[in-house]
């Protein structure tokens, strides 16, 4: 009997994550690409590290970019748990920034204790409504959420573009952006002489909140069951349609919060490019996070390092930023490959476990 238990435990617990190996292979492929492009991979990766960790300002920039990526990816983690594939975080970030700008521009010179929460709340609400509408279309009309959220991105981005080129445009500037929001709505700076603000602390707090929701609450269990086995969810009295809409509301709200914080902490005004593809990068981060908020945190930090480091390579060696984007894509491709490999390995181990049980029953 003891031998049987050892066999079963060996089958169940023998699989290990190959994600670190996949990331190493991605960097090796990136090194080959750099070499073929005429650059020294060692010097390039050294420039990447110096650009990300060379001084206090570099580290602050990494953490600054981690903030919106982390917030948007946490929201996508919830929708992924409910088996809803949302591509709409980018547009929701734009609308979240728009909501915060509306409060900061038109509510008057409010004190920080009121202006900051109101701007964030406006961003969360408009982002949640935008995401929830896509969820409602999926539930009521069986609309494909991938296509719907992708198309809604363009609507949201063009809405912001219209506002900064039209009714909200700063009359004192030739550039297409709004006037500055009230100073009371600016995010306080965490590290002097850098752009790092308290939005980072809010994002870290959200990691704890989402971890608690997914691991310790009935709601987290319902999201998981609804996404992994809809029939079992219905048998247990879980309203699958309601969970889909709720997951999209939360996902949109978090992306909206990311947009609001980005506007309040970095730009202080509504601009056309309020998000440099944070929403699309957050999709990759959510995939790498595999439904675990702490892993999402590390993935967001990792991609922020790649983003800031790519700019460092450009400044010191003249390497195009596009190569940094290619490196991010390579990480995603190898990470997805590692996940497929792990799933196949897990299936094989389950078969071995069943065989061990059958052998023990004879």
TrEMBL record:
Bilayer topology annotation: Multi-pass membrane protein
Superkingdom in the source lineage: Bacteria
Sequence intervals crossing the membrane: 21-42, 62-79, 91-108, 114-134, 146-164, 196-214, 244-264, 270-289, 296-313, 319-341
The keyword Electron transport is assigned to this record: no
Keyword Cell membrane attached: yes
GO molecular function, one term: transmembrane transporter activity
Cellular compartments annotated: Cell membrane
Pfam families assigned to the protein according to its UniProt record, in alphabetical order: BPD_transp_2
GO cellular component labels: plasma membrane
Keywords for the protein's UniProt record, in alphabetical order: Cell membrane, Membrane, Transmembrane, Transmembrane helix
Name listed for the protein in its UniProt record: ABC transporter permease
Protein species of origin: Enterocloster bolteae
